[in-house]
User: Fold these one by one.
Assistant:
Number 1:
Amino acid sequence: MLDSLQNILMPKTKYIFVTGGVTSSLGKGIVSASLGKLLQARGFKVTIQKFDPYINIDPGTMNPYEHGECYVTEDGAETDLDLGHYERFLNTPTSQANNLTTGQIYYNVIKKEREGAYLGKTVQVIPHITDEIKNNFFVLGEANQYDIVITEIGGCVGDIESLPFIEAVRQARWDLGDYNSIVIHLTLVPYLKSAGELKTKPTQHSVKQLSEAGVQPNILVCRAEYPVPMDIRKKIALFCNVNVNSVIQSIDADTIYDVPLLMKKERLDEIVMEKLKLTSDIEPNLESWKAFLGKLKNPTTEVNVALVGKYVELPDAYKSIVESLIHAGAVNECKVEIKWVHAEKNQGEALMKELEEVDGILVAPGFGERGVEGKIEASIYARKSKKPFFGICLGLQCAVVGFARSVLKLEDAHSAEMKKEALNPVIDIMENQKNLKQMGGTMRLGAYNCKLKKNSLANKIYKESNIIERHRHRYEFNNKYLEQFEKAGMIASGINPESELVEIMELKDHPHFIGSQFHPELKSTVENPHPLFVSFVKAAMTYKDAK
Ligand code: GLN
């Protein structure tokens, strides 16, 4: 009776929860995205969401050293970088609803408490926090847009802060009834060199911990450096209470883009469908994915591109840029070798030395003063040497400052972010940012229109005149200087039609010098590599050929 009641109440959407144990960085995001890809390729409408157990409302206020890149969605949410993988793999946009944190959950509950939503009650972790988590598990599914919602739970099973999420998964599974949800648990199967063996004990412990919280995983994905043989799979299956065919391996791959095919080989999609009683007559069509991989792995040429930034010790800080360069490289059948150039440690001679050999210069986004002078110098060098240049957000702003100083001879030109009292603030704070008191979620965020100037480089690259791109910044090109810049050869080739804000600038007298105030890297996917990256790589190839 209860069972059928549950099924009547619940929509037809199926839910897949992905948890992780033993250690972080096992690749839950990539496995989720890969599974999503395989199910999508079978004709299902899939979305992936991430629930993070930290207290920040979102990662927008965190340092990239803490959390890697902050990924911005079309609707302006500042989110976890895994959402970038979801978009790059599935080629469908995510939104605010795809990323929740403990901070947001508590914020919602406390707001409701103040509004009197729980009048007369003691507000507690169970049921109020867990109910709030559960409701949010279902938001995307209830809109009935999706056949399958994959929910990745951040952190590790056993962490104190993960407990309410695991409890919410337990309850959600009960609410959903049989065959409407499964749990996939990622663990590590390490190889002990001295013993010459793969070890199953960490997996056993991790699953035990999950089971103690009332959640029995249906599928185990075992991350391993070496193939996991059948006898080890049997052992794991026996001690973790899962079917042998539900113990699958996730071997270290050459590229994250191999993982969907590796998961397919392990039949992950078929096992999931079986457990959720899903059927599809469509054999997954991964032809275009395979074509991309073919090009990625068989480049006919190579370029060396400098990525000038201040977080270069941590490539995760520039995740989407790196992936966009990979997509653009594959289209061009060109291996893009990234030379990481530290903008703070390298200035003057040392910086020139770093940039001398490269075929293109990309100046990265960022905040604050550290490393800015190196970025400005890099842009001046790119202009003079005629090397392809691509500035993103702060990268564009640095190119503007560099041009003002070296061509317009406004020697004290700067961005008001770095020097409030600059006599020539060629980059200035946006009017509506001036009186903001709150830091979180208040930048110019998400998608904005941009109109491209006819026959500009931008126009040629995009092959269209109206584009929409995603933003994350407080400062902007100062339009008071526009005429001066344009007269001297740096033109605004992309403008926001509603606000007149400059979104793209480029040099007229240069083979390929372009910078965007927005973040094109947030929209590059395997299926749709971003034209600005494709063209930058192509320009680097041309530069190299002419050398
Ligand atoms: N710090 C600059 C601003 O706020 C650039 C931001 C960025 O690069 N994302 O405008």
Note: The mean pLDDT is 94.
Number 2:
Amino acid sequence: MKADFLEIKSEVAAAVNDKKPVVALESTIISHGMPYPQNIETAKLLEETVRKNGAVPATIAIINGKIHVGIDDQQLDFLGTGNNIRKASRRDLPGIIAAKENAATTVSATMIAAHLAGIGFFATGGIGGVHRGAGQTFDISADLEEFSLTPVMVVSAGAKAILDIPMTMEYLETRGVPVIGFGVDELPAFYYRQSGVRVPRRVDSAKAAAQIFLNSKLLGYNSGILVGNPVPEKFEMSRDKIEKCIEQAVQEARVKKIIGQDVTPFLLKRLFEITDGESLETNIELVKNNAEVCARIAVEYSQMI
Ligand code: PSU
Ligand code: MN
């Protein structure tokens, strides 16, 4: 049985086949995480950044029920402007494919698709995690569980500060997911560099991160690894300022009874509005930085295997 819904761009397939470095990129950030036209501009910037650092980019999305690993400009425009694009997480993939729908992939779905295509590295902005107030709402992103199920190394600026970062770390610890601080001792908090939550391991080079991924493979792990790469200092937001804005956005989501997969896009959109666009600027810079670091790790890894 072969997945006839998997369309791997020829450049990507060739690179995977030759064991060359490839970096997967997600599409939820394009369709649900950023406004137009910055979403499309950022997607292009990320692909360029991956190339500049020696790897082949593969942006992943579902178009007409087919998982595309690597998309073209026309498909990118469609994902960035279309209004009927679903948000696909692990639970959604089989149904979306069957119904031949269009969907952007979250971290969990992107990890699944990347692995299916033979790609081991993936750069994003922030992963989903345990939401504030999860004790009441049970809102825990499927991204966390995915790390224990799928062997992909994900470079992110940590968990979004809209989440409960200590609980997110506890969850990852329970699932046995290796978490690495890239040049830092604490898990980054997306908009700012230090969450106050220590990571179990710090590395100071791309090579050291690649070695850890290789070790996990040699140990027979079938789980992923989270790399926390902080936003560059000059683009960091003031912790006090963004925390106040987050409190406000979270409160609004509660009043409006926003639930399920709509929570994260709602919070990101409100933060963009409340901060007058500053949160978006930081978001773009951190995800670019993640694409660079991820490509560098993928390059190091390709020299080890
Ligand atoms: N981080 C961002 N923007 C985003 C997301 C994360 O800066 O759009 C997306 C990712 O695709 C992540 C998803 O996987 O939000 C998590 O959604 P949820 O909390 O519903 O699991
Ligand atoms: Mn959720």
Note: The radius of gyration is 18 Å.
Number 3:
Amino acid sequence: MYKKSLFILIFLFSQVVLYAQNIIPFPTSIQLSSTNVSIDAIQSIRFSDEVLRSNAEIFSQYLQNINGKILLAKPASNGTIILQLDKQAKQEAYTLTPLANNNIEIKGSESGIFYGLMTLLQWMTDPNSKTINASIQDQPSFLWRGMHLDVCRHFFPIAFVKKYIDILALHKMNTFHWHLTDDQGWRIEIKKYPLLTSIGSKRKETMMDKHFNPYIGDQIPVEGFYTQTEIKEVIDYASARHITVVPEIEMPGHSVAALTAYPQFACKDSIVDVMTTWGVSSNVFCTKDATIHFLEDILDEVISLFPSKYIHIGGDEVPKENWKSCAACQKNIKENHLKNEHELQSYFIKKIDAYISSKGRNTIGWDEILEGGLAPNATVMSWRGEEGGIAAAKQNHGVVMTPGSYCYFDHYQGKKATEPLAIGGFTTVEKVYGYQPIPALLPKQNRKYILGAQGNVWTEYIPTSDHVEYMAVPRLCALAEVLWTGDKRKDYGNFAKRLITHFSFLEKNKINYAKNIFDVEIKSNISASGLQLNMHNALPNYTIKYTMDTTLLEADWKSADSTPISIRQSANMKAALFNDKGEKMGAVVSQSYVVNLATGKKVNNKPAASSYYNHGGNTTLVDGIIGTLPWTGSEWLGWSGKNVETILDLGTKTTVHSVSMHYLSDEASWIYLPQQIELWVSIDGKQYIQKGKITEKDILQLEKGSSPVFQFEPLSTRFIKLVSTCIPKIPAGKPGATEDAWLFMSELVVE
Ligand code: ACM
Ligand code: ZN
């Protein structure tokens, strides 16, 4: 009896201990220790080797910033954090061990000890922890744990860049991808070409919200760049925090700011302005030798500034139209026996790659650098889904995964009406947490080429540093755990619970963050009985309450359990998360449902939507939710350069007189209405008869935001087929000209 209760006691104790640790990213191995160190007793820090001084100082400064505690410079015999360099230890690995007399030993490589200190920092400042009572053995799962920041679309001062680096360091991220040049601003001083900054770092204003057409500018000039001295300061600051800064110099596209300063390096020597809108410009670098020399000069200065192994050269979104009509580019194609402009892009990148390689560095570029053939030493950053990464790894090239649907932190992260305007997409913390950087499709022998992953923060719609933090955090925390803890990570519910404590850590560090983990996600599900809703939030110990009755007070809303809620008629659903005191934790999420004959019926698309825009799958077309503008990514299915056949099965013969589909038009995002839509009906799903066709002329006459409707004499049918033909390519003069257009569909409405 006695033994049994002791066992239970130990078991309970270990549960308590493990839950008391709210460290993010969670250590890969943590074990209860019989030695306890009282956090209050910790008073000093000492190190075995002078190279550890900077680790100790940075840690002490972080600790002091958080809770004012000042560690003694003079080591004591008790209450001391002992940093023990282990030259044999693996890079980035550490152990943390509580010792007698309230001492703690952190042992490992130089970077490992830094990560051990970051673990200790979170633990020591956790209001729920009184003791350090477990030993940790820890090491990262991935080599490349990155965050990117675009300082071109909006400029951020050095002080913020350093804060961003601190945010990375606090989460054991080790790579800062600094996007320094783009169409809307050149942000790095290049001594040989001063006009890059004196002209290229300035734009006369910025487009307001999404006022592309008609264009509305804010009439506020924007300028800013970093001197080489400032850049060195950032590199040193990052290096002390074991973070590598990877610079990105965009070429041959996204180069309008450079071409404003030096128009002689474009195909057409015309005067342009630093862009004030977003999107993809057809004004790109010419592939002539003079441009290559110009870029080599720039890279010389970049390489001598940045010690990183990798130099990012962009390579994404390069419209080829100017090359098609340029004598120099066409001469390059002919003389080098290239098939087309894709091979010309590859020719250009290979030249730059050879130059970077000759300097002992490695080229990294966005996945478009695969097109026309990958340069011999290039590493690929896969952003248009995972396909580029898979293709590169299969060719034994290094890969960093940044697929949009998991890693673009400029996407929406919640559906509340109060979310700030974003570029599009829908990427929740839970989605990020579920990311597996190694694609299941990749053969085992190629998996070692996946270096890791990275979160990207493009700042078109993110004008302030507070807003950058809001978009980056806590999605960054989730990605940090994906990359550090890897497959040993816990379930999302456990992470989200730790994140609540981590929020207080973020607050103490004055880091702004989004609270969308408290949002309720209303998930649609199509069952035999039609449209059903499931209320979802992974946090344990809270209650989801909802109502479809606009007159009810929150206190009278229904509690949701796991029973799905059937939607039989058009309704407005509101839901929120409440704690056990009945206090609302997040904001109210509200969603309107328009129920029609198609709602909740079976629907199929051929081909399936792109994995990039397939949130919710085919159900999205019959879930009663009509996609809104600005689009938030989750309400729309998207296809690139494909005609789509949509077949709806009404289940039984039904009388119908009208069919419409909601399509999206957003030229800045390369999204176009279809060129033609055909309507077909069938009783048996085999023999179809055509009931109508809407042609380009009719579609062009539609009012902005309205959808094409087929109306006809009532008829009885079971199957309805729509064939949507996409436009062949994006027209000249539009963002993304000559590329495949996207076709986006939201709701199919049948009456
Ligand atoms: C990108 O998002 N254009 C790499
Ligand atoms: Zn040219």
Note: Residues 599 and 622 are 5 Å apart (CA to CA).
Number 4:
Amino acid sequence: MSGIKITIAIDGYSSCGKSTIAKQLAARLGYSYIDSGAMYRAITLYFLRNGVNYNSPDEVAAALNDIHLSFAFNNTAKSSDIYLNDEDVSQPIRDMLVSEKVSPVAAIKQVRSFAVAQQKRMGRKKGIVMDGRDIGTVVFPDAELKIFMVADPAVRVMRRFKEMYATNPHITIDEVRHNLELRDYIDSTREESPLHRAADALLLDNSSMTRDEQLEKVTVWVKDRAISNMVR
Ligand code: DC
């Protein structure tokens, strides 16, 4: 692959497989991978643990002041663990309780400014793949490659169900479906940077693609963008 490093922004609805392709790409290209959703989840976890009333701007501001987020590469998992004030919270942020509250928390303007400022800093040197809901529209509007992912809702529910069932065998398909539908609704209708496809984002529907097929397809897009940026 060409030596030129680009920025890759991946957006889409919950459980479309954004993190899977983002991790694959980062590993193949030697880029860093940042899961921006993990940041909103870690903030939500802090709010839940500390009983922060997220309807109070003062309480939210005070809480954000106490929150420090960082990522550390985990060589075994080949992905980054997220730390909330020096505690590895990669597992607890996946709890259903956090999933239920994360969309309203991520809709708060102060929370978004806090997270977006850090995300922009992480992307300064390029060579990054970041996934989320507003990466191509707000965080990296100048990203050389923007991908908007979609997948059949039934496929998404089963993917998330399998993922959650591994750690919580009491979870039901209906609970997962309800949570995804609600999050899609809140994420795409909120006032602050709602989820939508950037005009220049390439559409990737992976409903019936294998992981290898999607990686090959997106790798072609990366090469194409890297080359066109080299000759510009
Ligand atoms: O990617 P995820 O499902 O783990 O994200 C959790 C929530 O965080 C999601 O419901 C919406 C929010 N989010 C966001 O608002 N903006 C982002 N860039 C990433 C996630």
Note: The radius of gyration is 17 Å.
